[in-house]
Amino acid sequence: QTEYAQRNPRSYEAWQEATLSLPGGGTRSSIFVHPFPLFIERGEGKWVFDLDGHQYQDFVSDFTSGIYGKSNPILKDAITRALDNGLQLGAHTKTESLLASELCARFPSIDLVRFANSGTEANILAISIGLEYTRRKKVVVFKGGYHGSVLSHFGEDDGGDLKVPYDFLVCPYNDISGTRDAIEQHKDDIGVILVEPMLGAGGCHPGTPDFLQGLRDLADEIGAVLIFDEVQTARLSTGGRQKILGITPDMTTLGKFFGGGFAFGAFGGKREIMSLFDARHPQSIAHGSTFNNSPLTMIAGLTAVQKILTQENLDKLNQMGDEFRENVNLHTSQNAIPFSITGLGSINQVHFHPSTDGSQTQSQTQMRKEGLDLFYFKLLEKGYWISQRGLISLNFEMTREDVKAFEKAVIDSIDQVYACRT
Ligand code: PMP
Predict the structure, then answer these.
(1) Which cofactor does the UniProt annotation name (predicted)?
(2) pTM of the complete model
(3) What is the Cα–Cα distance from 361 to 338, expressed in whole angstroms?
């Protein structure tokens, strides 16, 4: 860490200055880096460049939302053309309805869709409408779940997160009988079951098909609205993980990359639920944020969906991720190194396992954190940028060779971390 400080004096200075006007020197807690974050001056292709003149290959990809890399020419061209048509129109546009119809066609669960400004907002709106539709109060969420900055890390004890005031019932992920037990007393009060098909920020743990199907059955039994939060997992296929598994929720929430690089959220679902927003009816529910249909976002999103997020492109990217994860896991298991990567396709999470006895003592948690930190700094030294908490996400700017070279850097870094410990 001393080396880190010595290598990055300009970032350190910029960060200190930032702390004068921003708590912790930033405006996004999730990207803070201990002891201080690097300040990035610009990005190009798969690269980011920091204030101290270092260049890193970006394997965070803005926590999965930066799937296009920094300067996709198709997006740049569309956005530049859109600029000529006016920044804010404050009106219905064809681009908006075209993007909506693309999303309805892609996601089996979406008959009608509405846009918002973030995944967080999409989830808040989806929960609210699900409760309104069922006229119930309780919301089932899962331990380790993350649905946005005020809907996060349920059931985790090292939190400190703000939460929106819903009546949450936190159930165990990937445990359908535990979930059934937990809701037993509350069946008639549960309006919404909100779940990620893979825990994202909670460690990239995929939901088992049995668990997700079990939730589908449970929601039907008790009359609750099942919402899949596919804000991250939508990049696993053109129709998200629901399409791959053939499990159709009542509603789906989306965000991140569907804005083509701009702030975005969307929530959609069954016609009878989403029709509550139909402004033709006097009793309809109002939902009207200024930037819901921002022309730049709509153009960028539509262009991305039509020209970049094709099944072929997604398959290629996800295969690279699968190979990377499998190769690293093969190396660590063959060499009995207590380390693994979990995830699906191009979304991955690093795990250090200092002990295999399964107990979670404080010192083991500490060792995990230290392992991750060291791993992070070792990769930075090699010119790779991942998230400090160990999220690795690929983007379309990367070639097979890039991912192969990164795989080697990851394996070398794991070996260095364990060498430091012995
Ligand atoms: N749901 C999931 C599964 C997410 O991963 C995230 C963001 N990481 C969100 C919701 C929130 O999206 P946003 O950051 O756009 O509010």
Answers:
(1) pyridoxal 5'-phosphate
(2) 0.96
(3) 16
